[in-house]
Each structure stands twice: as C-alpha cells, then as structure tokens.
Amino acid sequence: MICLKIIGLPTNMLWLFLSLLVAFFESIKVVLSKKSFNIKNIDEYVASWSLRFFASLFLLPLLFFIQIPSIGNRFWEALLIRDGLVLITTILYMKAIKSSDISIVHPMLNFYPIFLIFTAPVFLGEFPNTYGLIGVLLIVFGAYSMNMSKLKKGFFAPIKAILKEKGPGYMLGVAFLWSIAANYDKIGIMDSSPIFWAITSNILLVLLLSPIMLLKSKNIKEQIIPNIKILSSIGLSSALLLITQMIAFSLTYIVYVSALRTTSAIMSVIFGYLIFKEKNIKERLFGATIMVIGVVVIALT
Fold this sequence. Notes:
By secondary structure, the chain is mainly alpha-helical. The protein has 15 helices and no strands. Helix 6 (112-123) packs antiparallel against helix 13.
C-alpha cells in the first residue's frame, strides 16, 4: 500500500496509527461544530447537511485515484441500512453538541464499544475477550465521575446531573445506533473497498438530509453562504475521519478501531476548556480518561 511506504509503518501497526488519526479528526469536527453553533448561529439541520455535503466534495475527487471495485451481494442492503441509521445519528450528534458542553456530551460516545460488545457478535461474529465486563464497569464509573462534585446531593446525583441535560441523552442514542451502523460499515467495505464505501455512503446521506433541511430550516442560504469557511472545514474533518476510519476497519476488528477512537473524548474535554471555557474540567477530564481506559481494556487486552 502507498500509505504504508509514506509513513513507514508495518501493516500490523497501520490500523493503530489510523485509529489515532480518526480520534484527532473526530475531536476537530466536534470543536468546529460547536463553534458553528456558538458563534455563527447555525441550526442543527443545516450543520448536519453541510457536514455531509462538504465531506462529499472532498471525497469525490478520490474516485479518480482508486480502482472502482466490484460490488458484493450485500453492498446495497448494507448501504441502505447503514445510512438510514447514520441519518438519525448525524442529526442527534449535532443536537447534542448544540445543547450541551462538548466536555460532557462527547465522552458519552465512549459507551459505543459497550454496545458493540453485543452487536458485533450478532452481525460479524467478532467476540471480545473476557475482560469486557471490567471495561464496561470502568466506562460506567468514568461517566459517573464526570459529575462527582454532585455526590454530596446523593449517590445517584452525578447520574441525574448528566441525564437532566438533553445533550448526553442524544449522544447516548448516537453511540447505540453507531454500534449497529459500524457492523454494516464492515460489510459494505468487504463488499466494495474502504474509500469507495466512504464516498457512496456519504453521497446518499446528502440526498437523505436535503429534504429534511429544506423542511426544518429557515433562511438556509443566509446560514450557509456567510459561514461557508467553517462549514467546509467541518466537512473536511469529516472526510478525513471517514477515509482513515474505513481503511482502519478493513485492517482489523471494528471494536479495536472504536476503542482508540474514544481518545478523542479526552481531546474534546481539553478543547472545551481551552476554547469554550467550559467548567468542571478536572472531573470531566478524569471521567473521560477512565472511560477511555475502560474501552481500551475491552478491546486490547
């Protein structure tokens, strides 16, 4: 592979490098999305459509540099089911970022590998090891400790502090649906190729999101044209995320890639503090770190 020669990594280490890149691009996408809501006053439907539209513009030229693969028997089934799920998660993702601090909502995605423990065996026959339960407990404890300062109000107060906000609930929904959609990503990749799958699935999402945006959003042109720089930046980060993630999926188990992707939660907590001056940074960073450790225990031990 050309990319192996460029970065000088052996094949069995490439997935690790790519997974860390996925985490980085994920955190950048979250920060830019939050900035578009806080500063540019863009609604979640325009943000969702723009994410997929501008990502497609960056992805489409890659068709000239790859060999168009033969399509497998399950490609179209996987594409329709996967994009139906991701259509929902894209909107929920933006709603979560818009309604709450990124340092509290983004770590909720760390529940994604917990859900994968139950969905991956069903869809792909990929079974995690016996350390899964320990990892689950660590993730739950990490989420609990993100509001540890509320403990003086009762044992369940930290959990209530999270659930009373809409953002974390939205993001838990994203994590659950992603755990199903990721399995169809793997099927689609196996029945085509990583980059071709990323391009086709993203284009379909643009088509699906367009009527929703037209129905739900007002002053669409006024939202997009003056803010095209930040919206295209969100799309670029998404395109880079998709390419690296799909290639990583093709190289190893999806639960391994997902484990390292969760390190983006730590990055987002730090960015939330540095850029948006979000509060309770110490306990949120501690909780996010514990959750990441739990995910790594699930995937890599």
